[in-house]
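Researcher:
Attend to token order:
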Amino acid sequence: MSRHTLGGGGSAITLRLVECSARKSENMNATLKTISKLLRPPDSPRGLIRGWDVVEQEIGLALPNDYKAFIDLYGTGQVSSAAGWAVIWNFRDSSFWWEGSLSDRLTERYSATDSYRQSNETEWPCPYPIYPEPRGLLPFGSVVDVQNLNWLTVGRANRWDVVYFDFDGSEFTRLEGDSFCRCLLKMLRQEYEGTERLSSLKPPFEFTEIRG
């Protein structure tokens, strides 16, 4: 093990790191604030049952701060619109996951990750590792039922790119540079050209109970 000492400039470097972190947090909060203007949060969010420490321990990964802030604000529900809809899975809601650990539910038979693994036996294999493999795809939502939103868990959680899975075309699209909130905001603004389902949400938007 090697150890590096910063010396007299350590305080200044630490201050710059703190300021940089604060700016990133402000940007993240600004994006969520914009989302909240387009999609009114519920007065009483549902499903905020478990703490994030328990959730992250079960998954084995730290999750992006913008996703956690969104769930804390909206809870369990569905982004409903004049055309399409989307569900952001609430990992805090143990009733949503019925029984067993969250990791088990995310990897069980007929789960999104299971379907990705099965695709590896076809001519359209998944181009990424799959959770719980290191740097793997971790599903966190669905668009119009079977089109999935995933994180590519490479690097720091707050910098994870979203990967969109189009079930109809068995195609994975990496939305490079788009974190959770950035992706959702672009979906609400219909900014994903060439991806029909991602642009299927049309105003007015409403956050409602999940519909079967």
The mean pLDDT is 84. The chain has six helices and seven strands. Residues 10-38 form the longest helix (29 residues).
